[in-house]
Every structure is written in structure tokens, then in C-alpha cells.
Amino acid sequence: MKTLYKTFFLLLLLPGIALATNGPLNGKYTKEKIIERQFSVNSDALLQVSNSYGNVDITTWRENRIEIQVTITTNGNNEEEVQRRLDEINVEFSDSKSLVTAKTIFKKRQTNWSFWGTKD
């Protein structure tokens, strides 16, 4: 029953993720970073994922730990902008023996534009 509950919980998170397109990378430059974490948990622990763009692949096993590997890829025709976008994306982790969460975080960009014109 616990496995069914975990599966149902995770399936609730996936529809939004599945709608994100993962088309071919057509830009001239591609940058990538990999984030890996491992957490010791109870046998009935839950995993909560909040992902904004991309795919989530889940593999179950009978061990009391959760391993997470995140691959973040950016692409475009301006190498500096591609690197800047990569630097702005991170994953925030939180863990306890009964719950592990992973959430995509986007750093807010500073802009000089407003509704009324440029800012000083």
C-alpha cells in the first residue's frame, strides 16, 4: 500500500512536467551542469519533486536512500547568455528521514526596464 501511495503521489506531479517540451537544441552553444545528491531515509520515505522544465525519470529500489541526479542544459547562439542562463538555474534540496524534496530555482534577473520606461 505504501508503494501505491508513493507512486500515486509522484504521478500527480508528472502531468505538468510532461507538458514541458524537450525539443532539439538548435543553438550554436550548449552548456550543461550536473548536480548529484544522496539522502539516507526511512523505508517509507516520500520524494517530492517540483520541476519547471524538463523530464523526470524515477527508478525504484529496495534501499533506504534516495539518490538524485539533475542534469541542467542550456542552449543558444550567444555563449555568454547561455552561461548566464545556466548560472541562474539551481536545485534546492531539503531532507529528513521521511521526506526529501527537490525544487528547481530560477534566479531573478535584474532589468533596467519598467512599464513606464527605463529605471534609473
Q: Could you explain how this protein is built, in words?
A:
It is a single chain. It is built from two helices and seven strands, in the order H-E-E-E-H-E-E-E-E. By secondary structure, it is an alpha+beta fold. The chain has one domain (2-106). The strands form three sheets. Strands 2-5-4 form a three-stranded mixed beta sheet. The chain has a two-stranded antiparallel sheet with strand order 1-3. The longest helix has 18 residues, at 2-19. The chain is elongated and about 50 Å long.
Integer average pLDDT: 82
Number of strand segments: 7
Strand order of the largest sheet: 2-5-4
Rg for CA atoms: 18 Å
State the helix count.
2
Shape: elongated
Percent of residues in beta strands = 35-45%
Low-pLDDT runs: 12-21
Q: Report the structural category.
A: alpha+beta
Q: Output the helix-strand order.
A: HEEEHEEEE
**Terminus-to-terminus distance:** 59 Å
**Residues in helix, %:** 10-25%
Q: What's the structural domain tally?
A: 1
Q: Describe the largest sheet.
A: 3 strands, mixed
Describe, in short, the structure shown:
This protein is α+β, with helices and mostly antiparallel strands. It has helices at residues 2-19, 79-88; strands at residues 29-40, 46-50, 65-76, 89-95, 99-106, 113-114, 117-118. It has 2 helices and 7 strands.
Write the layout of secondary structure elements.
Layout: H1 2-19, E1 29-40, E2 46-50, E3 65-76, H2 79-88, E4 89-95, E5 99-106, E6 113-114, E7 117-118
Parallel strand pairs: 2-5
Antiparallel strand pairs: 1-3, 4-5, 6-7
